[in-house]
Design brief:
- The structure is a homotrimer of 136-residue chains.
- Chain A is α+β, with helices and mostly antiparallel strands.
- Chain A has a single domain, classed as Sandwich (Jelly Rolls).
- The first copy, chain A, has three helices and eight strands, in the order ββαββααββββ.
- In chain A, the strands form two sheets. In chain A, strands 1-8-3-5-6 form a five-stranded antiparallel sheet, with no helix packed on it. The first copy, chain A, has a three-stranded antiparallel sheet with strand order 2-7-4.
- In chain A, a hairpin with a 2-residue loop joins strand 5 and strand 6.
- The termini of chain A are close together.
- The relative contact order of chain A is 0.39.
- Chains in contact: A-B, A-C, B-C.
- Chains A and B meet through strand 1, strand 3, helix 3 and strand 8 of A and strand 3, strand 4, helix 2 and strand 5 of B.
């Protein structure tokens, strides 16, 4: 049995954010055993799993991705929405748009140091939508 | 209940292609509620979700991935099938080989601007196989 | 029906390893039809699908990822556990932490050249835990 829960995240400006708590708050009680699939409905933001403790990790992510996907690369054509537009599309494919996390004993089976990241690649805050699908 | 649908895509040469329509054509009517998992059975092509409207986005993807994974990097050893061989393997891991997309009301819950991309990393056209798995 | 199988992989030092056999050994007989979701419970290692035959491919992966995510990048702040710490977090997001592989006729539907990779990004051997979730 699968059930979908559309989740609207609060708006955030460019950066990397831990949203584990915000996602769980918007879901009903998790099943005993199951799987949670998260899918982000955007092409200029991504979701990933990474370190949940030290905020410098999220800062370093911002620095690193700007370093390998800088704005104004000479070969970029698509810039309709500004210089952060095409880099955002590229980053979203590098990071990915769906994750599946196992559920056991009614809890996400995340490792000790794992959190769910929202990666916002546009400069200005956007209202991002996830679909959380729980099957059991 | 899970059902698998092997899909053979038409051959395409190096580049990024929207295959949402081609995939849906080869599937039966989607269930009311469910999930579609797409898995590509190759190590020199990838699948991703990205912008479905402006073709310059796909051109920029081609330029960008050639820029960060160029051919003939001095440290590359594996070149049995030519200079596009190892870069194709690397790109396929960067982009990924499986995606899970929620299905609701008999339709893929893609965002307005999202399409399914086939990323063909080899120069010459290859016949690529996907497995589409629908569970509901 | 979903069942989870926690898998502890044998310790490996930095590098890329094919673990298809080791994973299958730790699972019961696969169902006739189903899906295997693999989730790695760490933020400094990743899992991916790539070439299963030529070991130079895995060496080239090591070289390439060290080239695009070198140690001691000047803007990196997070280095509590050493210079391989933050690059490992970045690589794990680039490579990913979950994969879904279809199962048919009691076998993984991998392509001819596909194997499951453990990507160990820390210098020293770590005991890595996966959760294998089988649903059918």
């Amino acid at each position: 049995m699968i059930k979908h829960y559309p989740i609207i995240l609060r708006e955030r400006s460019r950066g990397y954010y831990i949203i584990t708590g915000e996602v769980l708050e918007k879901l009903p009680e998790l099943p005993k055993e199951g799987l949670l699939n998260l899918f982000i409905q955007h092409t200029s933001a991504g979701i990933s799993i990474n370190e949940n403790a030290d905020s410098t990790v999220r800062n370093d992510f911002e620095s690193f991705f700007n370093y390998i996907v800088p704005e104004n690369m000479p070969f970029i054509i698509h810039d309709m929405e500004g210089p952060d537009d095409m880099p955002a599309h590229i980053k979203s494919t590098l990071v990915g748009s769906s994750i599946s996390i196992p559920i056991s004993s009614g809890r996400l089976m995340l490792g000790t140091w794992q959190g769910i990241y929202l990666c916002e690649f546009r400069n200005f805050p956007h209202r991002r939508k996830l679909v959380a699908s729980i099957y059991n």
